[in-house]
Amino acid sequence: MAELVAKRYGKALFEYASSHGVIDEIQVDAAYLRDVFQQNPGFARYLELPEITAEAKVESIETIFGPRDQREASLSVGMRGLLAILIRKGRISALMPVLEEYGRLVMEFRREVQAHVRTAAALSEDEEQRIQEALCQSLHKKVSLSVEVDGALIGGLVIRVGDTVFDNSIRTRLDRLTRELMDLQLRGEEKAV
Length: 193
Prior knowledge:
The protein has 193 residues and is of the alpha+beta class. It is built from 8 helices and 4 strands. The protein has 2 domains: 2-108, Orthogonal Bundle (Peroxidase, domain 1), CATH 1.10.520; 112-189, Glutaredoxin (3-Layer(aba) Sandwich), CATH 3.40.30.
């Protein structure tokens, strides 16, 4: 249910942003809101309190994030509208998944993908660039990389793009070899019986 809500509202936000020519502005707002909610978890809890009316919460949003010309920390009309709708519908807890879905739709619209790379050791800039170029070429999309060092891999790397995983780690190769050897051993024991 939460995923359906995120998809519906994320799509609506994207359609609003694209029809009003504010895709980038909404992305900036989304990044800002993620920071606000991460740094102020009490604020998120406040917006979910059932004893406070939706109108009081919406007023709080307007006071805190009002028009841009009045304060530095503000949100666009579209983002404040999304917050108001989520508050009034009792779905403010879905805000982060909605923003993630919006980001996914923007990347899809721009033919971009995010690739998460796990390696056993840190990559040089040249290695990162070669991986990025190879992915761009094979996926026919612009690729943004995030790289994580994971010593458990022993060597090699694992690349995740969406639901697709390219696993060329030594750990996986060793696991695969172990399974193959065990299968051979089991087949040998079956023949002996």
